[in-house]
């Protein structure tokens, strides 16, 4: 949305020119309305809601935050709520109602047609992170005995209510999925041809209880616009469209990023209670890492006498620890992403490890040579340069090994590899890197003092 339009809306809101707002809002896309609402205060939201066209409000509703949703429910009349719900797709309604109380959900379901309410009620019963939880029941399905002409008549009749019209699903009398054909294939076929003679019988489909992340992987792999959802009897129950999968990918990526930072998302706009929740969620991880980081302190304590003898060793400790942690995180990120997208599988461990070690070895050689030269020129002691360079080389190789293998090990035991990232890997590599550094220094002690 253009800045000039936003400023114009803000100006009219200040003057409470609601009627003048309506034509402006009529021209905005639902995504622009969502963006606009996010930038307004709650008082401004309350003022602008009556001016937003109901159809656009329906498309934008699921993207609003919790407080805005409840504000809308309190401001909009029951008859207008019915219009909003009628213009929403089934999966979006289910997502919306899933954020409300049971009482409010029942109240809104009563505003809907009985058959629609039953469909939504069924959708609410599925796990929200499963195929059933993100599917929509608004699709085009035609029985296999129909002709092309009859099928086109059906499409014309129900296309407005369907969320996806590019694929036509074909079922038998018991609603079992028999095949699929594209809209192009349908409209280019002769009217008297039987549908069952046109269909692609090998249909990529997913089961109701399949995890949403796996559904996203399937749609991405086969470049689908939608995928049908079936039960154990192969009965067609719904479809999952690519726009919902984009939301899933964003949600899963966000979740992994928070895991990799050993934290979680918190809404700070809710006041002190949210700040307390944020602190409670982050504290356990930080406490664990606090005690884990004492491993590095223990290593330094063991070699404290050596450190007192050669003070120059302390100058390179931060560089060694930081570079090792960075190298480990690079390898880790590649493996975690590969496992998440399916590009890397558990059976690929040794092949991927071999490749990573080769890359890590080359990087270690370059970084080790550079830091060795810096140590020699800075301190004038070539043995110190050898020690620091070797330590850097070994540290990066170790970090590459740990960063590559840890996600595979966690994935093997059914643990999300993302939790291995960042702080945990860095803590382990810090301790191992210092141990390698001081062990090499002790071996060359006579030449350092």
UniProtKB/TrEMBL annotation:
The chain crosses the membrane at residues 285-307, 359-378, 383-404, 424-445. SMART domains: CBS (SM00116), MgtE_N (SM00924). It is found in: Cell membrane; Membrane. It is a multi-pass membrane protein. Keywords: CBS domain, Cell membrane, Magnesium, Membrane, Metal-binding, Transmembrane, Transmembrane helix, Transport. SUPFAM superfamilies: CBS-domain pair, MgtE membrane domain-like, MgtE N-terminal domain-like. Gene3D superfamilies: CBS-domain (3.10.580.10), MgtE N-terminal domain-like (1.25.60.10), SLC41 divalent cation transporters, integral membrane domain (1.10.357.20). Residues 135-198, 199-255 form the CBS domain. GO terms for cellular component: plasma membrane. Its main location: membrane. GO terms for molecular function: magnesium ion transmembrane transporter activity; metal ion binding. Belongs to the SLC41A transporter family. NCBIfam families: mgtE. Acts as a magnesium transporter. Homodimer. This is Magnesium transporter MgtE. It comes from Orenia metallireducens.
């Amino acid at each position: 949305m253009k800045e000039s339009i936003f400023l114009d809306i803000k100006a009219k809101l200040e003057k409470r020119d609601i009627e003048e707002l309506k034509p402006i809002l009529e021209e905005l896309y639902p995504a622009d309305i969502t963006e606009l609402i996010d930038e307004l205060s709650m008082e401004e939201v309350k003022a602008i809601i009556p001016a937003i066209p109901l159809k656009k409000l329906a498309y934008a509703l699921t993207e609003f935050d919790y407080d805005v949703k409840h504000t809308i429910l309190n401001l909009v009349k029951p008859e207008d709520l019915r219009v909003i719900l009628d213009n929403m797709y089934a999966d979006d309604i289910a997502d919306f109602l899933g954020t409300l109380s049971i009482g409010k959900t029942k109240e809104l379901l009563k505003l809907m047609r009985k058959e629609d309410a039953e469909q939504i009620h069924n959708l609410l019963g599925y796990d929200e992170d499963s195929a059933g939880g993100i599917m929509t029941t608004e699709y085009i399905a035609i029985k296999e005995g129909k002709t092309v002409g009859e099928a086109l008549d059906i499409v014309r009749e129900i296309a407005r209510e369907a969320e996806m019209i590019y694929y036509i699903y074909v079922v038998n009398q018991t609603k079992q999925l028999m095949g699929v054909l594209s809209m192009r294939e349908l409209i280019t076929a002769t009217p008297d041809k039987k549908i069952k003679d046109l269909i692609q019988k090998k249909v990529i489909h997913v089961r109701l209880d399949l995890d949403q992340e796996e559904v996203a992987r399937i749609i991405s792999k086969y470049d689908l616009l939608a995928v049908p959802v079936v039960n154990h009897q192969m009965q067609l129950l719904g479809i999952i469209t690519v726009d919902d999968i984009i939301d899933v990918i964003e949600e899963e990526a966000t979740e992994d990023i928070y895991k990799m930072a050993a934290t979680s998302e918190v809404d700070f706009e809710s006041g002190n209670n949210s700040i307390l929740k944020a602190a409670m969620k982050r504290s356990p991880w930080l406490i664990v890492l606090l005690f884990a980081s004492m491993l590095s302190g223990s290593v330094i304590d063991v070699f404290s006498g050596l450190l007192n003898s050669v003070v120059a060793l302390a100058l390179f400790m931060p560089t060694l620890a930081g570079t090792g942690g960075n190298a480990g995180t690079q390898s880790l990120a590649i493996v975690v992403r590969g496992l998440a997208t399916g590009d890397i599988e558990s059976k690929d461990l040794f092949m991927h490890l071999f490749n990573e070690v080769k890359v890590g070895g080359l990087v270690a050689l370059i970084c080790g040579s550079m830091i060795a030269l810096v140590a020699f020129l800075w301190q004038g002691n070539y043995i110190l340069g050898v020690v620091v360079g070797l330590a850097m080389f070994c540290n990066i190789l170790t970090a590459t090994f740990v960063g590559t293998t840890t996600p595979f090990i966690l994935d093997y035991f059914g643990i999300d590899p993302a939790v291995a990232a960042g702080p945990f890997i860095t803590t382990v590599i810090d301790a191992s890197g210092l141990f390698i550094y001081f062990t090499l220094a002790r071996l060359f002690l006579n030449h350092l003092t």
